[in-house]
Design goal:
CATH topology: Rossmann fold
Low-confidence stretches: none
Number of domains: 1
Strand order of the largest sheet: 5-8-7-6-9
Strand content: 25-35%
Length: 264
């Protein structure tokens, strides 16, 4: 049985229109779902098995408000195997189920002194610093994807409006993708600042490229867990990232639930 058939059989009451990828700090979103059905990635051929703490491997089908959604709890990162197309099959499957919008989340480091840990940032654009693409190897003209307004302006505007209505501070800025898994050096953080980045991280950009290739609209948010290397005395580690993410998860997930419930 292919993944679309499995999902339709297990969750026949949900026909998702919005796909969500949960990064560190955003897992609390699943607590806001109603009519939820869980399907392990192991039951879905082609879905990845993440190897990173804080990333489960479960597809959730349910509703946020009246909005039918498919939530990918766990993503495959490029640094896990070197391949950057690990989320291609899940996104293709969810698009095949009817998802026209992808909402992405991640944990990121701030390179702005005025955007401290525990902040939330709406991604306005990205820097693909490794210059790696999940579309390498495809054929045909469709692989030449236009990434102007890759992060949908109307969705960004709506998300900012909802955040203001909720009394939440939502920064906006450029996300710079580093392959990882090592953290950036202070010199690399200074480079990112000079290139116009506001936050740095190790995910999201490949999925945005894949989604735009499928014709999906993209909205993306970062949870800021730390300042970039050299900007503070913090000892950067994945454990520190997870600790910061857990502290702010409830706030981030509640805002995300409000935003998704009101998306067109």
């Amino acid at each position: 049985m292919n993944p679309i058939q499995t999902i339709a059989q297990r969750a026949p009451h949900i026909q998702p229109r919005i796909a969500v990828v949960l990064g560190s700090g955003w897992g609390g979103l699943t607590g806001h779902l109603t009519d939820a059905v869980q399907i392990a990635y192991t039951d879905l051929p082609g879905f990845p098995q993440p190897t990173v703490a804080g990333h489960s491997a479960t597809l959730w089908l349910g509703r946020l408000g009246a909005q039918p959604v498919a939530v990918l709890s766990g993503r495959k990162h490029g640094y896990e195997t070197g391949a950057v197309d690990g989320m291609a099959v899940p996104l293709q499957v969810l698009h095949g189920l009817g998802c026209q919008t992808l909402v992405q989340t991640n944990a990121a480091g701030s390179v702005r002194p005025d955007m401290p840990p525990q902040s939330l940032m709406l991604i306005s654009d990205h820097l693909n610093l490794p210059q790696r693409s999940p579309l390498v190897g495809l054929v045909g003209n469709a692989r030449f994807v236009n990434l102007v307004d890759a992060y949908d302006p109307a969705l960004k505007s709506l998300a900012a409006q909802i955040a203001r209505a909720q009394g939440a501070t939502l920064f906006e800025g450029v996300y710079a993708w580093f392959l990882g898994p090592q953290f950036e050096t202070p010199a690399e953080i200074r480079m990112a600042q000079r290139l116009g980045a506001d936050a740095v991280g190790m995910s999201t950009v490949p999925e945005t490229i894949l989604a735009r290739h499928l014709g999906m609209r993209v909205l993306a948010l970062s949870f800021i867990t730390n300042f970039g290397a050299g900007m503070s005395a913090e000892n950067l580690s994945h454990a520190h990232t997870l600790q910061q993410a857990q502290q702010g998860s409830a706030k981030a997930s509640q805002l995300l639930a409000h935003i998704i419930a009101q998306l067109p």
